[in-house]
Amino acid sequence: MNPVIVVHGGGASSISKDRKERVRQGIIKAAEVGYKILTEGGSAVDAVEGAVAFLEDHPEFNAGCGSVLNVNGDVEMDASIMSGKDLSAGAVSAVRCIANPIKLARLVMEKTTHCFLTDQGAAKFAAAMGVPTIPKEQLVTERNIKRLEKEKNEKGALKLGFQQDLGTVGAVALDCKGNVAYATSTGGIVNKMVGRVGDTPCVGSGGYADNDIGAISTTGARESILKVNLARLTLFHVEQGKTLEEAADMSLGYMKSKLKGLGGVILVSKAGDWAVKWTSTSMPWAAAKDGKLHSGIDLHETSVADLP
Protein backbone atom coordinates (compact mmCIF):
# COMPACT_ATOMS: atom_id res chain seq x y z
CA MET A 1 0.00 0.00 0.00
CA ASN A 2 1.47 3.35 -1.04
CA PRO A 3 1.15 5.84 1.83
CA VAL A 4 -0.67 9.14 1.44
CA ILE A 5 -1.25 12.17 3.64
CA VAL A 6 -3.48 15.21 3.15
CA VAL A 7 -3.39 18.29 5.39
CA HIS A 8 -5.47 21.47 5.62
CA GLY A 9 -5.02 24.85 7.25
CA GLY A 10 -8.68 25.74 7.69
CA GLY A 11 -11.48 27.18 5.60
CA ALA A 12 -11.35 30.96 5.23
CA SER A 13 -13.34 33.76 3.65
CA SER A 14 -10.07 35.50 2.86
CA ILE A 15 -6.33 35.22 3.38
CA SER A 16 -4.44 38.49 3.11
CA LYS A 17 -1.74 38.73 0.45
CA ASP A 18 0.98 39.32 3.02
CA ARG A 19 0.11 36.04 4.78
CA LYS A 20 -0.66 33.82 1.80
CA GLU A 21 2.88 32.69 1.02
CA ARG A 22 3.66 31.97 4.67
CA VAL A 23 0.48 29.94 4.91
CA ARG A 24 1.31 28.10 1.68
CA GLN A 25 4.80 27.18 2.82
CA GLY A 26 3.54 26.12 6.24
CA ILE A 27 0.93 23.74 4.87
CA ILE A 28 3.39 22.26 2.36
CA LYS A 29 5.96 21.68 5.10
CA ALA A 30 3.35 19.98 7.29
CA ALA A 31 2.55 17.54 4.48
CA GLU A 32 6.25 16.85 4.01
CA VAL A 33 6.65 16.18 7.73
CA GLY A 34 3.78 13.72 7.74
CA TYR A 35 4.83 12.02 4.50
CA LYS A 36 8.38 11.51 5.77
CA ILE A 37 6.97 9.72 8.82
CA LEU A 38 4.95 7.45 6.55
CA THR A 39 7.80 6.65 4.16
CA GLU A 40 10.03 5.76 7.10
CA GLY A 41 7.48 3.17 8.25
CA GLY A 42 5.52 5.27 10.72
CA SER A 43 1.83 4.71 11.31
CA ALA A 44 -1.02 6.83 10.02
CA VAL A 45 -1.58 8.01 13.60
CA ASP A 46 2.09 9.04 13.86
CA ALA A 47 1.84 10.94 10.58
CA VAL A 48 -1.32 12.93 11.30
CA GLU A 49 -0.08 13.78 14.79
CA GLY A 50 3.26 14.94 13.40
CA ALA A 51 1.72 17.07 10.67
CA VAL A 52 -0.81 18.71 12.99
CA ALA A 53 1.77 19.30 15.73
CA PHE A 54 3.90 21.12 13.15
CA LEU A 55 0.96 23.39 12.31
CA GLU A 56 0.23 23.95 16.01
CA ASP A 57 3.78 25.30 16.28
CA HIS A 58 3.24 27.63 13.30
CA PRO A 59 1.84 31.07 14.27
CA GLU A 60 -0.03 31.57 10.97
CA PHE A 61 -2.60 28.88 11.81
CA ASN A 62 -5.44 28.94 14.35
CA ALA A 63 -4.13 26.13 16.54
CA GLY A 64 -1.45 25.89 19.21
CA CYS A 65 0.67 29.04 19.26
CA GLY A 66 -1.52 30.73 16.63
CA SER A 67 -4.81 30.19 18.46
CA VAL A 68 -7.41 32.94 18.55
CA LEU A 69 -8.54 34.44 21.86
CA ASN A 70 -11.75 34.02 23.82
CA VAL A 71 -13.83 36.86 25.29
CA ASN A 72 -11.37 37.21 28.19
CA GLY A 73 -8.34 37.33 25.93
CA ASP A 74 -7.24 33.79 26.79
CA VAL A 75 -6.40 30.80 24.60
CA GLU A 76 -8.57 27.69 24.94
CA MET A 77 -7.75 24.91 22.48
CA ASP A 78 -9.54 21.80 21.20
CA ALA A 79 -8.15 18.75 19.41
CA SER A 80 -8.99 15.17 18.48
CA ILE A 81 -7.34 12.17 16.87
CA MET A 82 -8.62 8.78 15.74
CA SER A 83 -7.22 5.50 14.47
CA GLY A 84 -9.24 3.70 11.81
CA LYS A 85 -7.67 0.39 12.77
CA ASP A 86 -9.81 -0.11 15.89
CA LEU A 87 -11.81 3.16 16.10
CA SER A 88 -9.79 4.25 19.12
CA ALA A 89 -10.03 8.00 19.63
CA GLY A 90 -8.83 10.75 21.94
CA ALA A 91 -9.98 14.33 22.34
CA VAL A 92 -9.42 17.36 24.56
CA SER A 93 -11.24 20.67 24.79
CA ALA A 94 -10.76 24.02 26.50
CA VAL A 95 -7.12 23.23 27.27
CA ARG A 96 -4.71 25.99 28.14
CA CYS A 97 -0.99 26.53 28.49
CA ILE A 98 0.26 23.55 26.48
CA ALA A 99 1.99 23.76 23.13
CA ASN A 100 0.47 20.77 21.35
CA PRO A 101 -3.11 19.77 22.21
CA ILE A 102 -3.00 17.05 19.53
CA LYS A 103 -0.30 15.24 21.48
CA LEU A 104 -2.45 15.39 24.60
CA ALA A 105 -5.41 14.04 22.62
CA ARG A 106 -3.29 11.07 21.56
CA LEU A 107 -2.35 10.43 25.18
CA VAL A 108 -6.06 10.37 26.05
CA MET A 109 -6.54 7.80 23.28
CA GLU A 110 -3.65 5.58 24.33
CA LYS A 111 -3.31 6.04 28.08
CA THR A 112 -6.93 6.18 29.31
CA THR A 113 -10.13 4.21 28.90
CA HIS A 114 -11.90 7.44 27.92
CA CYS A 115 -12.25 9.27 24.62
CA PHE A 116 -12.60 12.88 25.76
CA LEU A 117 -11.19 15.03 28.58
CA THR A 118 -11.89 18.72 29.08
CA ASP A 119 -10.63 21.82 30.90
CA GLN A 120 -9.31 21.06 34.40
CA GLY A 121 -9.60 17.32 33.96
CA ALA A 122 -7.51 17.51 30.82
CA ALA A 123 -5.02 19.77 32.62
CA LYS A 124 -4.61 17.33 35.50
CA PHE A 125 -4.17 14.44 33.08
CA ALA A 126 -1.55 16.41 31.14
CA ALA A 127 0.38 17.05 34.34
CA ALA A 128 0.18 13.37 35.28
CA MET A 129 1.56 12.45 31.85
CA GLY A 130 4.45 14.88 32.23
CA VAL A 131 3.25 17.25 29.50
CA PRO A 132 5.07 20.54 30.13
CA THR A 133 3.08 23.72 30.62
CA ILE A 134 4.06 26.96 28.96
CA PRO A 135 3.24 30.56 29.94
CA LYS A 136 -0.07 31.60 28.41
CA GLU A 137 1.67 34.62 26.90
CA GLN A 138 3.63 32.20 24.70
CA LEU A 139 0.39 31.24 22.95
CA VAL A 140 -0.87 34.80 22.44
CA THR A 141 0.23 36.59 19.29
CA GLU A 142 -0.03 40.30 18.57
CA ARG A 143 -2.11 39.47 15.51
CA ASN A 144 -4.70 37.64 17.59
CA ILE A 145 -4.84 40.42 20.18
CA LYS A 146 -5.74 42.80 17.35
CA ARG A 147 -8.27 40.35 15.95
CA LEU A 148 -10.04 40.14 19.30
CA GLU A 149 -10.13 43.93 19.62
CA LYS A 150 -11.51 44.24 16.10
CA GLU A 151 -14.17 41.59 16.70
CA LYS A 152 -15.34 43.27 19.91
CA ASN A 153 -15.39 46.72 18.36
CA GLU A 154 -17.15 45.73 15.15
CA LYS A 155 -19.65 43.21 16.44
CA GLY A 156 -20.23 44.15 20.03
CA ALA A 157 -21.45 40.60 20.64
CA LEU A 158 -20.41 37.03 20.00
CA LYS A 159 -20.86 35.97 16.39
CA LEU A 160 -21.15 32.24 15.79
CA GLY A 161 -21.20 32.43 12.02
CA PHE A 162 -18.34 31.99 9.57
CA GLN A 163 -15.33 34.13 10.42
CA GLN A 164 -12.41 35.18 8.31
CA ASP A 165 -9.20 33.17 8.51
CA LEU A 166 -10.60 30.35 10.63
CA GLY A 167 -7.38 28.41 10.41
CA THR A 168 -8.36 25.12 12.01
CA VAL A 169 -5.71 22.56 11.07
CA GLY A 170 -6.16 18.91 10.23
CA ALA A 171 -4.63 15.86 8.57
CA VAL A 172 -5.70 12.47 7.24
CA ALA A 173 -3.38 9.63 6.28
CA LEU A 174 -3.14 6.08 5.00
CA ASP A 175 -0.03 4.11 5.98
CA CYS A 176 1.75 1.23 4.27
CA LYS A 177 -0.21 -1.30 6.35
CA GLY A 178 -3.54 0.05 5.13
CA ASN A 179 -4.46 1.85 8.35
CA VAL A 180 -6.08 5.29 8.23
CA ALA A 181 -6.20 8.09 10.82
CA TYR A 182 -7.24 11.70 11.25
CA ALA A 183 -6.18 14.55 13.52
CA THR A 184 -7.78 18.01 13.88
CA SER A 185 -6.79 20.91 16.15
CA THR A 186 -8.02 24.47 16.69
CA GLY A 187 -8.09 27.54 18.88
CA GLY A 188 -11.80 27.98 18.13
CA ILE A 189 -13.45 31.25 17.17
CA VAL A 190 -12.51 34.81 18.08
CA ASN A 191 -14.32 36.28 21.10
CA LYS A 192 -15.93 32.96 22.01
CA MET A 193 -17.49 32.42 25.43
CA VAL A 194 -15.26 30.84 28.06
CA GLY A 195 -15.70 27.08 27.91
CA ARG A 196 -17.16 27.04 24.41
CA VAL A 197 -16.47 23.77 22.58
CA GLY A 198 -16.81 23.46 18.83
CA ASP A 199 -16.76 20.62 16.34
CA THR A 200 -13.02 19.94 16.28
CA PRO A 201 -12.78 17.66 19.35
CA CYS A 202 -16.07 15.89 18.62
CA VAL A 203 -15.52 12.58 16.84
CA GLY A 204 -17.89 12.45 13.87
CA SER A 205 -17.89 16.22 13.46
CA GLY A 206 -14.26 17.35 13.48
CA GLY A 207 -13.14 14.13 11.86
CA TYR A 208 -13.53 10.39 11.61
CA ALA A 209 -11.44 7.37 10.63
CA ASP A 210 -12.41 3.79 9.81
CA ASN A 211 -10.20 1.35 7.90
CA ASP A 212 -13.28 0.00 6.14
CA ILE A 213 -14.06 3.42 4.64
CA GLY A 214 -11.32 6.03 5.00
CA ALA A 215 -10.53 9.14 7.03
CA ILE A 216 -11.71 12.75 7.02
CA SER A 217 -10.88 16.04 8.76
CA THR A 218 -13.24 19.01 8.60
CA THR A 219 -13.08 22.78 8.93
CA GLY A 220 -15.45 25.73 8.66
CA ALA A 221 -18.59 26.99 10.39
CA ARG A 222 -18.08 25.04 13.58
CA GLU A 223 -21.56 25.00 15.10
CA SER A 224 -22.97 24.03 11.71
CA ILE A 225 -20.47 21.17 11.43
CA LEU A 226 -21.56 19.95 14.86
CA LYS A 227 -25.23 20.03 13.94
CA VAL A 228 -24.84 17.90 10.80
CA ASN A 229 -22.00 15.64 12.05
CA LEU A 230 -20.17 16.59 8.88
CA ALA A 231 -17.32 14.08 9.10
CA ARG A 232 -19.41 10.97 9.65
CA LEU A 233 -22.08 12.19 7.23
CA THR A 234 -19.51 12.46 4.46
CA LEU A 235 -18.10 8.99 5.12
CA PHE A 236 -21.65 7.62 5.20
CA HIS A 237 -22.05 8.77 1.61
CA VAL A 238 -18.76 7.04 0.76
CA GLU A 239 -20.11 3.85 2.35
CA GLN A 240 -23.13 4.15 0.08
CA GLY A 241 -20.92 4.02 -2.99
CA LYS A 242 -20.29 7.70 -3.70
CA THR A 243 -16.83 8.86 -4.75
CA LEU A 244 -14.91 10.99 -2.26
CA GLU A 245 -15.70 14.11 -4.28
CA GLU A 246 -19.39 13.26 -4.60
CA ALA A 247 -19.66 12.50 -0.88
CA ALA A 248 -17.98 15.77 0.06
CA ASP A 249 -20.18 17.79 -2.29
CA MET A 250 -23.31 16.16 -0.87
CA SER A 251 -22.49 16.74 2.79
CA LEU A 252 -21.12 20.27 2.31
CA GLY A 253 -24.16 21.08 0.18
CA TYR A 254 -26.48 19.76 2.87
CA MET A 255 -24.80 21.89 5.55
CA LYS A 256 -24.99 24.98 3.34
CA SER A 257 -28.65 24.47 2.41
CA LYS A 258 -29.80 23.64 5.93
CA LEU A 259 -27.71 26.06 7.97
CA LYS A 260 -25.98 28.39 5.49
CA GLY A 261 -22.78 26.93 6.90
CA LEU A 262 -19.60 27.02 4.82
CA GLY A 263 -16.67 24.72 5.28
CA GLY A 264 -14.25 22.23 3.85
CA VAL A 265 -13.07 18.64 4.12
CA ILE A 266 -10.02 16.55 3.30
CA LEU A 267 -10.42 12.82 2.76
CA VAL A 268 -8.44 9.68 2.07
CA SER A 269 -10.08 6.38 1.13
CA LYS A 270 -9.10 2.89 2.21
CA ALA A 271 -7.76 2.38 -1.32
CA GLY A 272 -5.48 5.43 -1.12
CA ASP A 273 -7.52 7.89 -3.15
CA TRP A 274 -7.73 11.40 -1.72
CA ALA A 275 -9.85 14.52 -2.15
CA VAL A 276 -10.12 18.11 -0.95
CA LYS A 277 -13.37 20.08 -1.16
CA TRP A 278 -14.59 23.36 0.30
CA THR A 279 -17.41 25.87 -0.01
CA SER A 280 -15.56 28.74 1.69
CA THR A 281 -13.55 31.16 -0.44
CA SER A 282 -10.29 29.37 0.24
CA MET A 283 -8.73 26.47 2.14
CA PRO A 284 -4.97 25.93 2.31
CA TRP A 285 -4.19 22.26 1.66
CA ALA A 286 -1.46 19.90 0.58
CA ALA A 287 -1.37 16.21 -0.31
CA ALA A 288 1.62 13.90 -0.64
CA LYS A 289 1.58 10.57 -2.49
CA ASP A 290 3.90 8.61 -4.78
CA GLY A 291 6.68 11.18 -4.43
CA LYS A 292 4.46 14.04 -5.61
CA LEU A 293 3.23 17.02 -3.59
CA HIS A 294 -0.07 18.62 -4.58
CA SER A 295 -1.10 21.90 -2.93
CA GLY A 296 -3.38 24.90 -3.20
CA ILE A 297 -5.26 27.65 -1.38
CA ASP A 298 -7.92 29.10 -3.68
CA LEU A 299 -10.53 27.33 -5.80
CA HIS A 300 -9.26 25.96 -9.13
CA GLU A 301 -5.64 26.47 -8.02
CA THR A 302 -3.42 23.40 -7.74
CA SER A 303 0.35 23.11 -7.85
CA VAL A 304 2.24 19.84 -8.27
CA ALA A 305 5.90 19.35 -7.38
CA ASP A 306 8.31 16.53 -6.67
CA LEU A 307 8.80 15.78 -3.01
CA PRO A 308 12.33 16.38 -1.69
UniProtKB/TrEMBL annotation:
GO MF annotation list: asparaginase activity; beta-aspartyl-peptidase activity
Superkingdom, natural source: Eukaryota
GO annotation terms (biological process): L-asparagine catabolic process via L-aspartate; proteolysis
Chain ranges passing through the membrane: none
Residues annotated as catalytic: 168
GO cellular component term, pick one: cytoplasm
InterPro entries found in the cross-reference section: ASRGL1_meta (IPR033844), Ntn_hydrolases_N (IPR029055), Peptidase_T2 (IPR000246)
Keywords annotated in UniProt: Autocatalytic cleavage, Hydrolase, Protease
Record-listed E.C. numbers: 3.4.19.5, 3.5.1.1
Catalysis: reaction(s): L-asparagine + H2O = L-aspartate + NH4(+); Cleavage of a beta-linked Asp residue from the N-terminus of a polypeptide
Similarity comment: Belongs to the Ntn-hydrolase family.
Subunit structure: Heterodimer of an alpha and beta chain produced by autocleavage. This heterodimer may then dimerize in turn, giving rise to a heterotetramer.
Protein name: Isoaspartyl peptidase/L-asparaginase
Species in which this protein is naturally found: Mustela putorius furo
Organism lineage: Eukaryota, Metazoa, Chordata, Craniata, Vertebrata
